[in-house]
Amino acid sequence: MADGDWISFWDSKHTIFVGPRHIAAHFRRIAADLKPYAPAGGTMLDYGCGEALSAAELSEGVSRLILCEAAPNVRTVLAGRYASNPKIVVRKPEDVATMPGHSVDTVVMHSVSQYLSESDFDALLKSFHRLLKPGGSLVLGDVIPKRVSALGDGFALLRFAAQEGFYWAAVRGLLRTYFSSYWKLRKSIGIRRYSEAEIVAKLEAAGFKAQRARTNIGHNRARMTFIAHTA
Q1: Options 3.40.50.150, 3.40.190.150, 2.30.180.10, 3.40.630.30; CATH of 4-230
Q2: Residue 202 backbone phi and psi in degrees, to 5
Q3: Could you read off the pLDDT tens digit of each residue along the chain, which spans 231 residues?
C-alpha cells in the first residue's frame, strides 16, 4: 500500500485534521459523495479507508462493506467502532490480496494514489481488476493533478472550513501543519501527481475502461476522480 513512512504517519497522532468538526465533516462529505457509487445489495471495498467515521451511512445500501486499512492502530479503532455492524468488516491489505477473484462489485480508493510508488499503484490496479466481478467498477478518488499546488490545497480547505463552520480552526491548523512532520515527509519523500491522460493509461493497462468523473469526491474540486469498469 502506501510508503511505510506515510503509513507510520497516518498511524500516529497527526494534526492533518484541525479538530473534531473538521474530521467529521471530511468523512461525512466523502461518504455522501461515494453513496451514488455504492452497489445496491452488493459488496464494496474501501481500500485505504482511514478513520472512515461515516462508514455506517455508506454501508446502508450494500450487503457488505470491506474497510481496508494499512495503519495498525487505525485498523484497531475501526474494528472496535464497527464491531456491532454486521455489514462492515475490517481487513488489512494482506487479507485483501488473498480474497477470491470476482468477489467485489465496487472498489473505492480515495486519496491514496499520491502516497504510492508507481509500481505499487500499477500492481494495486491489477489486483482490483482481479477482485472485481465482470462489469464491476473502480472509483479512484482525489488524484492530485500536476498543476495543483499545496497552496491550492490550502485554499480548498479554507473554503470547505467556511462552509462547515471551522474556518479559524483551519487557519490555525494550516499554520501548525506547515511545521509538522507531515511537511517534513512531504519534502523528503514527496507525493505523486498525475495528468488525466496518465491515470487513464494506467487504468487501461490494468484492464479497465476509464474516464474522469465530472467532480471529485471530497471537498477539493481541483483534484480528480476516475470511474473505471472491468473491460
Answers
A1: 3.40.50.150
A2: -60, -45
A3: 466 788 898 888 887 888 999 999 999 999 999 999 999 999 999 999 999 999 999 999 999 999 999 999 999 999 999 999 999 999 999 999 999 999 999 999 999 999 999 999 999 999 999 999 999 999 999 999 998 878 888 899 999 999 999 999 989 988 887 666 666 666 666 789 999 999 999 999 999 999 999 999 999 999 999 999 997
Residue in 95, 92, 99 with CA at minimum distance from that of residue 68:
92
pTM above 0.90, yes or no: yes
Instruction: List all residues 6 or more positions away from 137 whose beta carbon is below 8 Å from its beta carbon.
Output: 37, 39, 105, 106, 107, 227, 228, 229, 230
* Domain map (residue ranges) of the chain: 4-230
Strands 208-212 and 132-143: unpaired
